[in-house]
Amino acid sequence: MEMIRISSVKFSYNGQNVIKEVSHIFKKGSFTAIMGPNGSGKTTLIRLMNGILKPQSGLVEVMGRQAASYSARELARQMAYVPQSQYNLFPTTVFDMVLLGRNPYIMWSPGKDDRLITSEILIRLELDDIALNDINKLSGGQRQRVFIARALAQQPAVLLLDEPTANLDLKHQHDILRLLGKLSIEGMTVVVSIHDLNLALKYCSNFIFLDEGKMVAEGDRKIFTEKLIEEVYRVRVRIIRDEGQMFILPLEPV
To answer: Would you state the pLDDT for residue 111?
Structure first.
């Protein structure tokens, strides 16, 4: 089942083309990594998908319907977005931050069901023991899980995340991606922008490479070649395979 279809999408900032004729279909239950060097258009593409930005040409469809035809509330019930690390947040408890994810469903004030859904998500993400803590006093890994929990409170079919492992230590990087993998297995469509090729290879099932706003490759792990990575990142690499797992070993700049 198609969850998101982007067709010949273009976008520019101040006359500079940032996304150039990108097309792709994101299917139900897929876990897709969007990769490429800094400035390649990863964040812009995700913002085009979730409606924060509007394409100058081309089309973004969500579940068979043009994204532009959804109201903000309707789209938030289908798709949730976790931006890059957020700092200097207003003082609030973890529970209340996650409860904000129920806004697309709340008319006047949160109801019993909203609080119950929030509590269940906190338990699932092992945040229930810090539910009353100030979010500003959490570690980076805990805070990122809170933002994912807030997104899950929207009960979305699609979850978009921009660099969800940035500024996290190795354990929390794996914890976050393992969680996202479980969500995709359960049927959620998950899309992440990510820099670490080896983390993407370990957890994701589909891959998109962007370079200067163009999609240069898409598909499963078979698209990973030393030539492709060298062309995209301008670094010579060696691909190593060990017990079925691929690893990218950087060697030197091209």
So the answer is: 87
Helix H or strand E segment including 245: strand 245-253
Asked if 8 contacts 213 with a C-beta cutoff of 8 angstroms, the reply is no
Amino acid occupying residue 163: E
Res 109: pLDDT: 86
Q: What is the DSSP string of 62-82?
A: ETTEEGGGS-HHHHHHHEEEE
Task: Determine the structural domain holding residue 169 and report its residue range.
Answer: 2-86+157-223
Domains held by the chain: number: 1
Quote the CA–CA distance of 28 and 168 in Å, as a whole number. Answer: 28
Whether 186 is in a domain gets the answer yes
Residue 127 has pLDDT above 60, yes or no: yes
Overall pTM surpassing 0.70 (yes/no)? yes
What is the rounded average pLDDT of the residues 179-189? Answer: 96
Please, which residues have CB within 8 angstroms of residue 237's CB and are 6 or more apart in sequence?
226, 229, 230, 248, 249, 250, 251
